[in-house]
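Hi support team,

I'm opening this ticket because the web form for multi-chain structure prediction keeps timing out on my end. I have pasted the exact lines I submitted so you can reproduce it. The total is 901 residues across two entries, so I didn't expect it to be a heavy job. Is there a limit I'm missing, or should I split the entries? Thanks in advance, R.K.
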Amino acid sequence: MSEYPFQNIETKWQAFWESNKTFRTPSDVDTSKPKYYVLDMFPYPSGVGLHVGHPLGYIATDIVSRYKRMNNFNVLHPMGFDAFGLPAEQFAVEHGVHPRITTEKNIDNMLRQLKALGLSYDWDRKLSTTDVDYYKWTQWIFLKLFNSWYDEEQDKARPIEELVEIFADTRPGWSLLSTAEKEHVLEGYRLAYLAEVPVNWCPALGTVLANEEVTNEGRSERGNYPVYKRPLKQWMLRITSYADRLEEDLEDVNWPEPVKMMQRNWVGRSEGAHVDFVVEGQEDKLRVFTTRPDTLFGATYMVLAPEHELVDVITKNDQKAAVKAYRKEASGKTDIDRMSESKTKTGVFTGCYAINPAGGSRIPIWIADYVLMGYGTGAIMAVPAQDERDWEFAKVFDLPIVRTVQPPDGFDGKAYTGDGPAINSEFLDGLRIDEAKARMIDWLEAENHGEGTVTYKLRDWLFSRQRYWGEPFPILRGEDGSVRAVADDELPVELPPMEDFKPTASDDPEAPPRPPLSRAPESWRVVEIDGVKYERELNTMPQWAGSCWYYLRFIDNMNDEAFAATDQEKYWMSPAGVDLYIGGVEHAVLHLLYARFWHKVLFDLGYVSSVEPFGRLFNQGYIQAYAYRDERGIAVEATKVVNQDGRPAMDVQDQKGQTYFYEGQPVSQEYGKMGKSLKNAVSPDEINDQYGCDTLRLYEMYMGPLEASKPWNTRDIVGVNRFLRRVWRNFIQDDTDVILVSDDPATDEQMRLLHKTIARMTSDMERMSFNTAIAALIEFLSGIVSLDTIPRSIAEPFILMLAPLAPHISEEIWQRMGHEESLAYAEWPEVDEKWLVQDMLKLVVQVNGKVRGTIEVPADTSKEAIIEAGRTNEKVIRHLEGKEIRREIYVPGRLINIVVG
RNA sequence: GCCGGGAUGGCGGAAUAGGUAGACGCAACGGACUUAAAAUCCGUUGAGACGUAAGUCUCGUGCGGGUUCGAGCCCCGCUCCCGGUACCA
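Hello R.K., no limit was hit. The queue was backed up. Here is the completed structure from your submission:
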């Protein structure tokens, strides 16, 4: 037989696992055993398939799953597809085929690629968010949101009926209200509600987008099209009610700090005060939000956002023209314009004055676009002495500046935002910022000028999309505009089959949105209940809906009574949810924040048992690769680039002094994330064909730490491939195909090597340090490579340790060693400490911290004798001559350091 | 600007609790086997100096300081790279 027949082996074992359902997790697992739920962020089934960067995380979770199975855990390791949403629909539109068909085709291709990697998923739990019996439950959860409200006192969501009962008891005249009037009140409380709000409208995509889906250049994250603000009536989810809990509960999860930080920033909690200003000639006061109530005495002017509703009311006649012009200019600006002009402040005086409640001075009211309508109250008190933006504005328009915090000596700056004693502030003088804030808030509340408050950057979640390929809302609308939920037993509301599912895209930002479902057949669109006609909600849910809760459906995916049976949910989700969740950091805010929100709602309503969905999150790094551009700056196929000697760039790209050519033309080298756009993608299929997937798995893990981004270098693959070939050659005789394992006892030296390796492997696997784990196996093999036959007592543990990393070759050798069962549930080797004990210690002897010699002593030598041996070592003596020994340090088992002066 | 993360040989990386810096792999070089090549196996490989040699010494983890018997690791001050965020009051 030819050496290392990886193709036969891998085909054989993938078929074996599939037909034996080796990795199925039955619903009646022995719950006395510990559980481990390992989850990947499931992929979009895109048409282009995978490149080698995609499976990095999947390979890692697979290794963890296999390792945990060998450690007597019940492992839940499922996989599915996030197939609704824009990418799937755009692909379908581009190819002119129905999204249901392209989605299924793409899923099939991806399944093939995933299975070719030998990943140990329980494929019986496979799901797609587009499955009718999946999105039935997505709709069901939406109805739970619709039928709930947030009780601020109990700090949890409760069923809306309970609010109705409370209103009946406590709200005078409640029973006199009409159904519509009651519903209007309740709308202000429901966690899913309709509201007319300024939304991010993307005419090119024909849909609205969530704040999270818009880049800071004001473009759509998907497709990079311009996005405009416009008011529309849309479904919203009241995620802001959960702002504090979404922030606070980050404390209790084992997540990467950067991701926690990004979520905290997104929630953007800030503490401060509302302050009410009397406006001359107005009844109503003007309310501002400030984080620095302590600086109120230094507020020398006020600024309203140009969109603020009071602008028209307060503007004096002689300023009307200027204000109108400024407002028009501001509204016509896109976000990009605002950004590019952010250097100099602009604004217009309204002609109107307000009275500073602290000190009573008369201060002018301006409008300026550096104040945003979407944050706080859309109005600020400007304190130029302690705020950089206000300082710049005051300088441009020559407004007064009063310092209310004493800057340190020698401070020559402008606005001073640091701490210091209050000045020019009457009853606050001398207090530090924190004390002054608290005192001012007390005063504001006592004098009825405002109160302490908290605001957030987080907005409610815009939940409607004007697209076809999404979950229909289980909502009916009456002709009078009333809203009615579809009954639970009427679920699912299936997406109607439509020939023309394309969105109505437009270049005109003012064109009215026309959801594709408005063209659905009337038989679907119109529903009659008790003689009343309703039209179905024509928007669909955003892509994130399906991915918000898929981890729960995996637990019990066949259940048609509930999204998951209670006992199953308890077993797999208690106490801290998913035990390991691996995915890219790009989901830090969107998916992870939304999923946490839904989970908390379900928790409040008693449907899930853990506070957080994902107890431990891990971000794998990106795989990067060299890429090449021609003189026009266009990326060229990296595999076809050669160096000055005509060698493929792949072989020399990490060396200096190279110049590169593509079809004879010089090209420049760069380095970036692997992908289509840089034309530097490497397909796993290629590597599989040439080396096999055990090699691919090993190489991806051997490249470096899982969390680090690292360069792909096809050249380096031969390293791990040589290792596997060497394993094969050592275990299987080349010409006779005989297994080279004997029942001879292992030598002591071999046993020491084995147990040292087990100890290293176990700790490396626990901390997911797979690169060093592989190094340990390579070292072990070098230690036994010269043996003609390998003693079974060391051969078997070695194969078991190799198994999670390179499962196919391991299964094959395991079987040839005489085992009838798969090694998938064999026991992970255990360290026998007695083989770790050293009889002789090798110690380094340092003089003043520099290594000068080594000594070898029996392990039971006393400290004094060891130091003596070190001091008298011939190489050491030279460095001690003529010097006084001041100190002698012995670090047990490691070194001796002799300090001389 | 602000907030995170990082920088170790020609390259990817290792050093888990402050204790021999460079494990393991790639590349390169030398050797064995071979008619030859591939494959495989053995050896060398951070830089420099001295020595015929065994070897010895000096320097060395982005830069400059510090703490310590001892610093890649801790502290202070920088540089550069990557990610997030940006008039958020």
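A quick check on our side: DSSP finds 29 helices and 35 strands in chain A. Let us know if the file doesn't open in your viewer.
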